[in-house]
Amino acid sequence: MSNPREQWSSKASFILAAAGSAVGLGNIWKFPYIAGENGGAAFLFIYMICIVMIGLPILNIEILLGRATQKNPVGAFKALSGKPFWTYVGALGVLASFTILSFYSVVGGWSIAYTVEALKGFTFETPQVAGEFFDLKNSNPMWVVGYHTLFFLMVLGIILSGVRAGLEKASKYLMPALFAILAILVVQGLMLSGADRGVSFLFDPDWSKINAQTFLLALGHAFFTLSLGMGAMMTYGSYLSEKDDIVNASYLVAFLDTFIAIMAGVAIFTVVFSSGYDPTAGPGLVFHVLPPLLSQLAGGYFFALLFFVLLSIAAVTSAISILEVSVAYLTDELKYSRKKATLTMGALVYFAAIPCALSFNVLSDFTLFGTGFTFFDMADYLASNVLLPLGGFFLAIFAGYVWKVDEVVRNLLIGESQSTYFGNSILKSKSFVAIFSFLVRYISPISIFLVFLYQFGWI
Ligand code: PFF
């Protein structure tokens, strides 16, 4: 049977697209403030352990499940297990893609709005004034929904063009641009007086801030930042051919993602510390604190503009991977055309996101189930702390006990030509298989399970 699915034109295209998915608001908007509030380097250390021990094996498995089945998450689980339970696990991914995109596109909309504001030139004297401006703008539903719509239209435009002409081309141009902009911002940050305090804030550990909650945050963020647990990497992997190597690609994507988060931390904290501001300003760090500080530097107009272009690029290349999961589901399973699938899912997710956009104005007093969370807070919380780790838990169980590690490794070996270490195949070494198996069968599911128990107050 001929396969009508499109494929990436090269392995490099896949790596760029997967890095585009991983590097997003999570790296530039979230990571710096989470690290800032949770002990700087101490958090970074725990987060890196989560990335290496849990994120990397699951990243390999997700991409592999996609490549092996050439299908979206629902179709992939159906093809490999045939059991309805696993099909529901795939469907959980589609649900997670709705949840994430509903708050992600609001922040994506803010990024575009702030790019426009930066073009006009920021005139705030202090972060406090900038914060008031942010709140004032957000109190207008038309403003939030309008920019959310603009962001969505960009995402839809890219997805409509298909895998090669849309997803691949967007990441091919946007990812190098993102990297170049970030490099400029890091260099200018490091040249400021007092920059060393920003750097040591990120690299000197404050262990007193570490507690069980930190592990929860670090694990949730590891899933979010690597785009794991909802089938985005699986869907991108399904556009790979059998000859493409997965292990190397996963290392590279995880490395780039972490490196870029650290670069963003350096770019932001050098500016914040050199101006003597509070590094733990929370989610507003990027929208309240940075505009006045950046624009007051020499050449500030340019740096502020670059920063928000950077944030918008990061948001767009990730959002396309989130929506692509649902689009691939409709095209594979219900045989929709790409156009029909994109417009159907696009419309559904667009409307599902409106309550998040209204969480800052019309619905700001409306909190869910006595949690004190608005729709926006709830979507953010559910995604990182529940849906993605839950998806990761099931992926580890599926790979470790249903599909079995031997089969996973046998499949990883297909197209493994470049995964060598001093000339020896990594995957064929007994120790790799033993470690991989231990991480997938025990460490990942048990740690995610413990985190859940803790989160719901059961331990
Ligand atoms: N990795 C993205 C970020 O760090 O912003 C967010 C994300 C993309 C999460 C795709 C999940 C996903 F499937």
Description:
By secondary structure, the chain is an all-alpha fold. It is 75% helix and 1% strand. It is built from 18 helices and 2 strands. It has a two-stranded antiparallel sheet with strand order 1-2. Helix 2 (25-37) packs across helix 12 and helix 9 (195-203) packs across helix 12. The chain is globular. Bound molecules: 4-fluoro-L-phenylalanine. 4-fluoro-L-phenylalanine binds next to helix 1, helix 2, helix 10 and helix 14.
Reconstruct the topology from this structure:
Elements (H helix, E strand, L loop, with lengths): L10 H12 L2 H13 L3 H29 L3 H9 L2 H37 L6 H12 L2 H20 L2 H28 L4 H9 L8 H14 L6 H6 L9 H28 L10 H11 L4 H34 L4 H20 L17 H28 L2 H9 L6 E2 L2 E2 L4 H26 L4
Helix pairs in contact: 1-8, 1-12, 1-14, 2-10, 2-12, 3-4, 3-10, 3-12, 3-18, 4-5, 5-7, 5-14, 5-15, 5-16, 6-13, 7-8, 7-14, 7-15, 8-12, 8-14, 9-12, 10-16, 10-18, 13-14, 14-15, 16-18
4-fluoro-L-phenylalanine binds next to helix 1, helix 2, helix 10 and helix 14.
